[in-house]
Amino acid sequence: GLDVARLYAQIAKGGKHGAFYHDVCDRYSRGADWHMNNVSCASQIGMQMYRHYRFNGDETFLQSHALPVMHAAAEYYLDILELGDDGLYHTHDTTCYEGTFLFNDAITDRTMIEALFTALVPHTTDEALREKYEHVLSHLTAFETLPLSLVHDWDGERFLYGVGAGR
Hints:
The chain has helices at 2-11, 41-56, 59-80, 107-120, 127-138, 150-153; strands spanning 82-83, 89-90. By secondary structure, it is mostly helical. Strands 1-2 form a two-stranded antiparallel sheet. The mean pLDDT is 88.
């Protein structure tokens, strides 16, 4: 499916480099919808392949299957990451699972970039590319957490506001 995922990035995602795997696709890796913005799927697939390699140590599998998908996923992330005025890399207008509304610095993307680029650094022979992965890792936006105000957001039985309003 890597060839189709690369084509999907080019055609459906406006000429982006790398690979875009849709989170809902058919057996030929064709995405179900052109507008989906869950960009973490390629990195998740690549990291599952990397875990397979880590479990069995099969260097041939790593070189022929896992690394091409991992590098293509990283290439897509490199194409959409933006270096902000704060000196940190950010993602914009992506979604988490199941087609949520658009986020900046979605936790899924942040997590997968860190895992993917960290795994790729020791397996990347291209010095400039390895340095790019390392630069992104050292300048990646921090996780943002917000406290839930149980005084204002929760009445003891249900959430009062936001997407999670209700029980």
